[in-house]
UniProtKB/TrEMBL annotation:
Region Disordered: start-end pairs: 1-24
Keywords: Receptor
SUPFAM superfamilies to which the protein is assigned, alphabetical: Toll/Interleukin receptor TIR domain
UniProt record, GO biological process: positive regulation of canonical NF-kappaB signal transduction; positive regulation of chemokine (C-X-C motif) ligand 2 production; positive regulation of tumor necrosis factor production; toll-like receptor 4 signaling pathway
Name recorded for this polypeptide: Toll/interleukin-1 receptor domain-containing adapter protein
Record has Phosphoprotein as a keyword: no
GO molecular-function term, one example from the UniProt record: Toll-like receptor 4 binding
Annotated TIR domain residues: 49-178
Top-level taxon: Eukaryota
Species of provenance: Pygoscelis adeliae
Gene Ontology CC terms, in alphabetical order: cytoplasm; plasma membrane
């Protein structure tokens, strides 16, 4: 299904085991899990950027995005979120603030709704995030809500997305995807 977050590929870790591909995945050696305390450690690569996640959304969807930000910031990892209305410096140019937030964030969550698709500013935000790290696996997290798959932006079709049906489940998927990226970041 294209409606879930991509999972990391583990088939390369069992190349020469002599077993069939189906069983080699089960026998793959997974690296030790990285705990929230490791990600939160002061020497962690997480702290190389100001934000863990930048949220791109339509103004119409602000209430839902504020709920998501509250959820993410309330997690044990205390994700650092950039929410333009709250975090942009008064008096700064809107485009400058957005570009800075995109460059200084590890991940970008795009809440793609009918309002997002109609808003030229949202399209600009999407293009800025994609230009920052083209084809960055796991960094751009599209979240579809009330949008048909055929209306999914062509620019994002190479990325898996999260379809928001149940808010709590979708919020957890977003959190898990951000966490997975931060874990990979700490391993490298």
């Amino acid at each position: 299904s294209a409606s879930s977050s991509p999972s990391s590929s583990s088939s390369s870790s069992a190349k020469s085991s002599g077993s069939s591909p189906g069983t080699s995945l089960a026998r793959s050696v997974c690296p030790a899990p990285i705990l929230a305390s490791d990600i939160n450690a002061s020497g962690s690569a997480r702290w190389a950027k100001s934000y863990d996640v930048c949220l791109c959304h339509s103004d119409v969807d602000l209430e839902l995005v504020e709920e998501l930000v509250s959820y993410l910031e309330g997690q044990p990892e205390s994700f650092r979120c950039f929410l333009q209305l709250r975090d942009a410096a008064p008096g700064s140019a809107v485009v400058t603030e957005l570009c800075d937030a995109v460059q200084n964030s590890h991940c970008w969550v795009m809440l793609i709704t009918p309002s997002f698709l109609r808003d030229p500013w949202c399209k600009y935000q999407m293009h800025q995030a994609l230009a920052e790290a083209p084809m960055a696996n796991g960094r751009t997290i599209p979240v579809l809500k009330d949008v048909d798959r055929r209306d999914y932006p062509k620019e994002l079709r190479n990325l898996y997305y999260i379809y928001m049906a149940l808010k709590e489940k979708s919020f957890r998927q977003i959190r898990d995807t951000i966490m997975r990226y931060l874990q990979e970041l700490c391993r490298s």
